[in-house]
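Q: Protein A?
A:
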Amino acid sequence: MTLGVLDWGIGGLFALRHARARVPGLDALYLADSGSRPYGTLSHRELARSVSVALHRLAALGATEILVACHSASTSLRDATAPVPVHGVIDPRSVPTSGGRTLVLGGARTIRSGVWRRALEGHGVERDRIDERRVDERSVDRRGVDERRVVGRIAQPLSAHVEAGRTGSDVCRRDLARILRPVLDADVVILACTHYAALRDQVQERMPRATVVDPALGVVDRLRLASGSGKLRVLTSGDPAAMRRAARLATGMRLEEIERIALD
């Protein structure tokens, strides 16, 4: 089998790295669609179309199963098409359900869609009375909040910091501190953007009592992966040099050969 991994940028590389650590001989294709508009800025219809085009291209290149390692893109999968099995990362099975407060940290589309709230409700986590569509990175309305709840928090600048290799910068640390300040009492933190894996240690440092969960890694753990020749092919619709630099700074991965492709 050949695993295809799709993300807008380099966030999905953390899931790919986890998959290859699980199965060292895994054959894989990675596609970063950074030549298109950021997925979080597209309408649902535009996003489903862009994701469908990318999924079909990965399948044409040999992917027999695809992981959509992007939470924004995963919100469109019910309306996207693909000729091979596809797995999104909005999957609550890795999230503890023993009670307490659950923080969903993600981009604007993911948080405002309420998709994680609905997934967690079905998983046995009670919802908060906060309407996530009204939550932004500046404020959280804490009135009438039950002890057990789900709170969405938009953390939009963080993915840009990761893509730019600024995770250790003062500005990134200030943004993270501002975003987390109103919700430091959360018991569980869901990293609802695959880029945020690069900031996991910083989140844990600021919230030492919380359980920090990267659901994409849990999805990878449930995939039936098979060893092959260990071949990895990396493609982008954007700038290969920028991707190479971002990957090295954010993940430590040195991607020597990145192919540029056009997605119609």
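Q: Protein B?
A:
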Amino acid sequence: MIQFDRIEKGLQLPPFVQGVWTIQNKGEDATIQLVADGYPELVIPINSTIHSVFNETVFSTNTPFLIGQINTACEIKIAQNSFFYSLKLFPWSLGLFSYQQAKALTNKSIPLNEISGQFDAVFRRFYEQMEENKHSLMPLQYLLLELKNQLSTTETPLLIQDVLNKFSGVRQLTLQNIDVKTRFSRRYLEKQYAQHIGLSPNQYLKVLRVKKASILMTTNLETNIQSVAQALNYHDTSHLYKDFKGLTGLSPSAYLLKNNPLHDYESYLSQWDY
């Protein structure tokens, strides 16, 4: 069984990390059908190899890797007795780790050392500390502090506000949401999304709506598809079906029937701030 646990105490998080989870498979080899959530991730395997499948393209690695934004079907294959850390990054933070635009990382899992050698010494020291302190958070805290020291955050208030609006269900940015002195255009916002997020504003909104739909369906199995579509401002259920299958490879009903081997589904859902 696959178990998700958020580390709630004992860590000082850098400003670009939304949260840290331990993920472990205590049973047989397993596959999780993921629904994209709008958060990129830095995944750190501990003596494990992780296989990520995006639209039948397989990425395999046993070293730290980044997962960019996802807007296609995705599976994660986790071997028996695997253990790894998942650092959920704020959506606008992906570009901190790469000189490329974030869209170059969309629908990909890329080993960090293929993007930049900047962090090689830090991760070597992290793994050395893990060997010495297997049951301590000290190595992880060392890693977070080193990442904070090496990465300089870039302020993108317009982009951040627009992302937060989409998370809360607001579909368009209004002047009341930002400093009225800020001058912007739709084209400028689209460039910000391409550089820092990796998807267009409309693509990103679609990802969040499908993720919210998956949560609504799985937390209340009596909820019908029509009420979910209405709650997420879809014109009709056919548009929800189209978006859902486009991003997950499954219809909503097929997704509900699929038996994901999760130890605690509530822990899985608690990864995201909605």
